[in-house]
Amino acid sequence: MSHDDPQPPAPRPATVPRTARLVVLISGAGSNLAALLAAQQDADFPARVVAVISDKPEAGGLEVARAAGIATVVVRPADFPDRAAWDAGLARAVSAVDPAWVVCAGFMRILGPGFLAEHAGRVVNTHPALLPSFPGAHAVRDALAHGVRVTGCTVHLVDDGVDTGPILAQRAVDVLPDDDEATLHERIKVVERTLLVETVAALARHGVGLDGRRARIGG
Predict the structure, then answer these.
(1) I need a surface site. Which of 49, 116, 123, 205 has the fewest CB within 10 A?
(2) Catalytic residue among 3, 119, 127, 156, which?
(3) Hey, what domains does the chain have and what are their CATH numbers?
């Protein structure tokens, strides 16, 4: 008695990795935004910037986005009756794009409770110091004034404090004897751009877990 040869299993369709949607918030020239846009030219980069939002219509980063064909939105505080209304308007603008992650890349305003209530746990910020040292808007100046020999940059989740959210990644930058604020900040920015791109890619691929204040990508 003969038996038919067993048929091989049908091939499974290739798995297409899901690409994480990013909204980038900016207030200035957009150098970190440009680094993310350059990274996403690689087909294997797991995230894509789908919109750029600024609080300033004159922000140079808006032109960086437009040149790349990215949608832009301006949400000016002057167009709202108070801080809470602006915060809610910003939250609506972000929600309309349905991002996986919101990246603050040189965004010089504090996000309020209304915004964070809607987007908590998925807002990422960069800071030009090794937090918790030197939070706030003058981190490079403060580090120099303190006389530190090593500073750096931090990528962290945003909470309701000023640069107080759980730390995702950090990288050190030496302070040189002849550094002033401009030269030191420029060297920090170079490191910061790379660290932000690497951290966003890791978040897009693996997510993040929290244990108290400790953040672990992939956890």
Answers:
(1) 205
(2) 127
(3) 18-120 (3.40.50.170)
